Amino acid sequence: MSDLSLLEGYVDRSTGNDPPSMSFRAMLQLAFRTWPYFQPMLKHLIVLGGLMLSGIVAGIPAAFVGTDLFYNKVLLGQKLQPLQATVLFVGDEYVTNEARQLGRQGISPPSNITADTHLNVPSDVDETAQPDTVSVLTQEQRKTVRNRLIIWGIVGSLFGALFGAGFWYYNVWIWQSVNQNLRVAMVERAESLSLSYHDSARVGDAIFRVYQDSAMIVNLIQSGIYTPISATLGLLLGLFVVAMFDPWFTLMVVVVVFPVAWLSI
Question: For residue 197, what are the CA distances in angstroms to 23, 187, 191, 192?
Fold first, then answer.
Protein backbone atom coordinates (compact mmCIF):
# COMPACT_ATOMS: atom_id res chain seq x y z
CA MET A 1 0.00 0.00 0.00
CA SER A 2 1.91 2.98 -1.29
CA ASP A 3 -0.85 5.55 -0.87
CA LEU A 4 -0.66 6.27 2.88
CA SER A 5 -3.50 8.77 2.65
CA LEU A 6 -5.89 5.82 2.41
CA LEU A 7 -5.03 4.89 5.99
CA GLU A 8 -7.59 6.36 8.34
CA GLY A 9 -6.02 8.72 10.82
CA TYR A 10 -2.88 9.32 8.77
CA VAL A 11 -1.77 12.96 8.67
CA ASP A 12 0.64 14.17 6.03
CA ARG A 13 2.80 16.65 7.91
CA SER A 14 4.04 18.15 4.67
CA THR A 15 0.57 19.58 3.99
CA GLY A 16 0.63 21.69 7.12
CA ASN A 17 -2.23 19.83 8.81
CA ASP A 18 -0.25 19.23 11.97
CA PRO A 19 -2.13 18.35 15.15
CA PRO A 20 -2.65 21.35 17.43
CA SER A 21 0.04 21.93 20.03
CA MET A 22 -0.83 21.93 23.71
CA SER A 23 0.06 25.21 25.40
CA PHE A 24 0.20 25.88 29.12
CA ARG A 25 -2.94 27.99 28.87
CA ALA A 26 -4.77 25.11 27.19
CA MET A 27 -3.63 22.78 29.97
CA LEU A 28 -4.97 25.20 32.59
CA GLN A 29 -8.30 25.38 30.78
CA LEU A 30 -8.40 21.58 30.66
CA ALA A 31 -7.60 21.42 34.37
CA PHE A 32 -10.47 23.79 35.18
CA ARG A 33 -12.86 21.69 33.10
CA THR A 34 -11.83 18.54 34.97
CA TRP A 35 -12.17 20.20 38.38
CA PRO A 36 -15.48 18.41 39.22
CA TYR A 37 -13.61 15.10 39.00
CA PHE A 38 -10.75 16.35 41.20
CA GLN A 39 -13.01 17.85 43.85
CA PRO A 40 -13.90 14.51 45.56
CA MET A 41 -10.17 13.86 46.00
CA LEU A 42 -9.28 17.37 47.17
CA LYS A 43 -8.73 16.42 50.80
CA HIS A 44 -6.50 13.54 49.73
CA LEU A 45 -4.45 15.88 47.55
CA ILE A 46 -4.01 18.19 50.54
CA VAL A 47 -2.93 15.25 52.71
CA LEU A 48 -0.52 14.17 49.97
CA GLY A 49 1.03 17.63 49.91
CA GLY A 50 1.30 17.61 53.70
CA LEU A 51 3.04 14.23 53.65
CA MET A 52 5.47 15.48 51.02
CA LEU A 53 6.24 18.58 53.08
CA SER A 54 6.64 16.51 56.25
CA GLY A 55 9.06 14.18 54.51
CA ILE A 56 11.15 17.11 53.31
CA VAL A 57 11.13 18.83 56.71
CA ALA A 58 12.16 15.61 58.46
CA GLY A 59 14.63 14.48 55.82
CA ILE A 60 16.74 17.62 55.49
CA PRO A 61 17.68 17.95 59.21
CA ALA A 62 18.29 14.20 59.42
CA ALA A 63 20.63 14.41 56.43
CA PHE A 64 22.57 17.32 57.94
CA VAL A 65 22.85 15.67 61.37
CA GLY A 66 23.87 12.33 59.88
CA THR A 67 26.49 13.95 57.65
CA ASP A 68 27.92 15.90 60.58
CA LEU A 69 28.06 12.77 62.74
CA PHE A 70 29.86 10.76 60.09
CA TYR A 71 32.43 13.28 58.87
CA ASN A 72 33.10 15.39 61.96
CA LYS A 73 32.46 12.94 64.78
CA VAL A 74 33.29 9.47 63.47
CA LEU A 75 36.10 10.40 61.07
CA LEU A 76 37.57 13.48 62.78
CA GLY A 77 36.70 12.49 66.35
CA GLN A 78 35.07 15.75 67.42
CA LYS A 79 32.83 15.56 70.44
CA LEU A 80 29.07 15.58 70.07
CA GLN A 81 26.56 18.31 70.55
CA PRO A 82 24.05 17.75 73.37
CA LEU A 83 21.22 16.98 70.93
CA GLN A 84 23.36 14.48 69.05
CA ALA A 85 24.31 12.75 72.30
CA THR A 86 20.63 12.52 73.23
CA VAL A 87 19.72 10.99 69.88
CA LEU A 88 22.54 8.43 70.10
CA PHE A 89 21.81 7.64 73.78
CA VAL A 90 25.34 8.29 75.00
CA GLY A 91 26.60 9.91 78.19
CA ASP A 92 27.95 13.35 78.96
CA GLU A 93 31.52 12.20 78.36
CA TYR A 94 30.73 12.30 74.63
CA VAL A 95 29.50 15.90 74.75
CA THR A 96 31.75 18.82 73.94
CA ASN A 97 32.47 21.26 76.76
CA GLU A 98 33.78 24.07 74.58
CA ALA A 99 30.88 26.32 75.53
CA ARG A 100 31.66 25.96 79.21
CA GLN A 101 35.35 26.52 78.58
CA LEU A 102 34.62 29.65 76.59
CA GLY A 103 32.41 30.84 79.39
CA ARG A 104 35.17 30.31 81.92
CA GLN A 105 37.78 32.01 79.78
CA GLY A 106 35.73 34.84 78.30
CA ILE A 107 33.73 36.12 81.29
CA SER A 108 35.69 38.53 83.45
CA PRO A 109 34.99 38.66 87.19
CA PRO A 110 32.96 41.54 88.61
CA SER A 111 34.89 44.71 89.45
CA ASN A 112 34.13 44.44 93.16
CA ILE A 113 35.97 41.10 93.43
CA THR A 114 39.69 41.40 94.12
CA ALA A 115 42.45 38.96 94.83
CA ASP A 116 41.85 39.31 98.57
CA THR A 117 38.13 38.61 98.32
CA HIS A 118 37.12 35.38 100.00
CA LEU A 119 34.66 33.27 98.03
CA ASN A 120 32.44 30.72 99.70
CA VAL A 121 33.12 27.57 97.72
CA PRO A 122 31.09 24.45 98.57
CA SER A 123 33.07 21.76 100.33
CA ASP A 124 32.37 19.14 97.64
CA VAL A 125 34.02 21.20 94.87
CA ASP A 126 37.71 20.64 94.16
CA GLU A 127 39.22 24.11 93.76
CA THR A 128 42.38 22.68 92.22
CA ALA A 129 40.51 20.79 89.48
CA GLN A 130 41.26 21.92 85.96
CA PRO A 131 38.62 22.11 83.25
CA ASP A 132 38.50 19.19 80.85
CA THR A 133 40.43 20.30 77.81
CA VAL A 134 39.97 17.05 75.86
CA SER A 135 37.78 17.99 72.92
CA VAL A 136 38.10 14.80 70.87
CA LEU A 137 36.56 11.39 71.18
CA THR A 138 38.56 8.35 72.09
CA GLN A 139 38.87 5.43 69.73
CA GLU A 140 36.25 3.45 71.63
CA GLN A 141 33.88 6.41 71.73
CA ARG A 142 34.22 6.89 67.98
CA LYS A 143 33.38 3.23 67.44
CA THR A 144 30.33 3.59 69.66
CA VAL A 145 29.16 6.65 67.73
CA ARG A 146 29.79 4.82 64.45
CA ASN A 147 27.82 1.74 65.50
CA ARG A 148 24.86 3.72 66.77
CA LEU A 149 24.91 5.89 63.67
CA ILE A 150 24.74 2.72 61.56
CA ILE A 151 21.78 1.51 63.63
CA TRP A 152 19.99 4.82 63.17
CA GLY A 153 20.82 4.68 59.46
CA ILE A 154 19.23 1.24 59.14
CA VAL A 155 16.15 2.36 61.08
CA GLY A 156 15.90 5.53 59.01
CA SER A 157 16.30 3.61 55.76
CA LEU A 158 13.55 1.15 56.71
CA PHE A 159 11.25 3.98 57.75
CA GLY A 160 12.08 5.92 54.59
CA ALA A 161 11.40 2.86 52.43
CA LEU A 162 8.04 2.25 54.11
CA PHE A 163 7.14 5.93 53.91
CA GLY A 164 8.20 6.11 50.26
CA ALA A 165 6.24 3.00 49.33
CA GLY A 166 3.15 4.25 51.14
CA PHE A 167 3.51 7.69 49.60
CA TRP A 168 3.87 6.20 46.10
CA TYR A 169 0.82 3.97 46.57
CA TYR A 170 -1.24 6.85 47.97
CA ASN A 171 -0.21 9.09 45.08
CA VAL A 172 -1.11 6.46 42.47
CA TRP A 173 -4.42 5.76 44.21
CA ILE A 174 -5.39 9.45 44.17
CA TRP A 175 -4.66 9.94 40.48
CA GLN A 176 -6.29 6.67 39.51
CA SER A 177 -9.37 7.68 41.49
CA VAL A 178 -9.52 10.94 39.56
CA ASN A 179 -9.14 8.97 36.35
CA GLN A 180 -11.90 6.60 37.43
CA ASN A 181 -14.24 9.52 38.16
CA LEU A 182 -13.59 10.84 34.67
CA ARG A 183 -14.20 7.42 33.12
CA VAL A 184 -17.48 6.99 34.99
CA ALA A 185 -18.63 10.40 33.76
CA MET A 186 -17.70 9.49 30.18
CA VAL A 187 -19.56 6.17 30.40
CA GLU A 188 -22.63 7.90 31.84
CA ARG A 189 -22.47 10.41 29.00
CA ALA A 190 -22.22 7.59 26.45
CA GLU A 191 -25.18 5.78 28.01
CA SER A 192 -27.31 8.90 27.72
CA LEU A 193 -26.82 9.09 23.94
CA SER A 194 -29.46 7.76 21.57
CA LEU A 195 -29.46 4.27 20.10
CA SER A 196 -29.13 5.71 16.61
CA TYR A 197 -25.83 7.30 17.63
CA HIS A 198 -24.50 4.01 18.99
CA ASP A 199 -25.70 2.23 15.86
CA SER A 200 -23.55 4.47 13.68
CA ALA A 201 -20.61 4.79 16.10
CA ARG A 202 -17.82 2.26 16.42
CA VAL A 203 -17.58 0.32 19.66
CA GLY A 204 -13.80 0.24 19.60
CA ASP A 205 -13.60 4.02 19.32
CA ALA A 206 -15.83 4.47 22.38
CA ILE A 207 -13.80 1.96 24.40
CA PHE A 208 -10.56 3.66 23.40
CA ARG A 209 -11.85 7.08 24.41
CA VAL A 210 -13.10 5.89 27.78
CA TYR A 211 -10.01 3.84 28.59
CA GLN A 212 -7.12 5.69 26.94
CA ASP A 213 -8.19 9.31 26.42
CA SER A 214 -9.29 9.69 30.04
CA ALA A 215 -5.87 8.49 31.19
CA MET A 216 -4.13 10.90 28.83
CA ILE A 217 -6.04 13.85 30.30
CA VAL A 218 -4.96 12.95 33.83
CA ASN A 219 -1.38 12.30 32.71
CA LEU A 220 -1.31 15.64 30.93
CA ILE A 221 -2.45 17.49 34.05
CA GLN A 222 -0.07 15.53 36.26
CA SER A 223 2.95 16.03 33.99
CA GLY A 224 2.16 19.53 32.76
CA ILE A 225 0.87 21.21 35.92
CA TYR A 226 1.40 19.13 39.06
CA THR A 227 5.01 18.10 38.40
CA PRO A 228 6.28 21.60 37.45
CA ILE A 229 4.63 23.10 40.54
CA SER A 230 6.23 20.43 42.76
CA ALA A 231 9.61 20.98 41.12
CA THR A 232 9.31 24.74 41.62
CA LEU A 233 8.51 24.32 45.31
CA GLY A 234 11.46 21.96 45.68
CA LEU A 235 13.72 24.48 43.98
CA LEU A 236 12.56 27.27 46.29
CA LEU A 237 13.14 25.05 49.31
CA GLY A 238 16.64 24.23 48.06
CA LEU A 239 17.41 27.91 47.61
CA PHE A 240 16.18 28.57 51.14
CA VAL A 241 18.50 25.91 52.56
CA VAL A 242 21.46 27.29 50.57
CA ALA A 243 20.59 30.82 51.72
CA MET A 244 20.91 29.69 55.34
CA PHE A 245 24.58 28.94 54.66
CA ASP A 246 25.56 31.53 52.05
CA PRO A 247 23.03 34.25 51.10
CA TRP A 248 25.37 35.83 48.55
CA PHE A 249 25.82 32.56 46.68
CA THR A 250 22.04 32.13 46.63
CA LEU A 251 21.64 35.63 45.23
CA MET A 252 24.20 34.82 42.53
CA VAL A 253 22.28 31.66 41.62
CA VAL A 254 19.01 33.59 41.35
CA VAL A 255 20.56 36.39 39.29
CA VAL A 256 22.49 34.13 36.90
CA VAL A 257 20.71 30.78 36.64
CA PHE A 258 17.10 31.92 36.40
CA PRO A 259 17.59 34.20 33.35
CA VAL A 260 19.66 31.51 31.62
CA ALA A 261 16.96 28.92 32.32
CA TRP A 262 14.29 31.31 31.04
CA LEU A 263 16.20 31.89 27.80
CA SER A 264 16.68 28.16 27.28
CA ILE A 265 12.95 27.41 27.44
Answer: 32, 14, 11, 10
